[in-house]
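This section describes the prediction task in plain terms. A model, or a person checking by hand, is given the sequence of a single protein chain and must write out its three-dimensional structure as a string of tokens. No templates, partner chains or ligands are provided. The sample shown here is typical of the held-out split.
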Amino acid sequence: MLKQKIKELFANDCSGHDYWHSIRVLNIAEKISKTEKCNNYIVMIAALLHDTDDIKIFETKDYKNARCIMSECHLTEDTIENVIEIIKEISFKGTETTSPKSVEGKIVQDADRLDAMGAIGIARAFAYGGSHNRAIHIPDCQPNINKDETEYRNNEGTTINHFYEKLLLIKDMMNTGCAKVIANRRDGYMREFLKEFYDEWNEQ
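The expected answer:
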């Protein structure tokens, strides 16, 4: 029932924050949770719901979408509040990014960030950029890697700049050992992609 509600909520998303992103985050979180002492039940619910009130997609207040879905699925008030606390903490916010207090939150944050890396991360970056009318690359448009949350949210830079402003930074922001191993591999893939991109861009 929970997955079906997520599928309905993200049915029309083409920005890389769709239903399948939530499922991938769920699967990665499950993998990480097997290496950590945690409440697996909370991890799974938070992983599925982590984007239900994302400011980039929805204009909700007090995590209305997540609260409604959990209430309709008859989850307890304690579970709802635990999940909301995780959702509040996991987003990338530029220089104001924080690490969640709970191990469950750290796992979900790692899983979400891992899906922003590697081949899928590259695909999602260009999907998001295209859905927001962002240029692929402008050679004289330099990235700004020291943005606070407001500047990060309002950023209208190129998709290639987004690699330097977020995607290449998150390898060193992982919380768990399992995620760090996966992040190293995916980070390497993105750097190889950028090298090939510039080689092709500058080809004479």
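For orientation: The radius of gyration is 17 Å.
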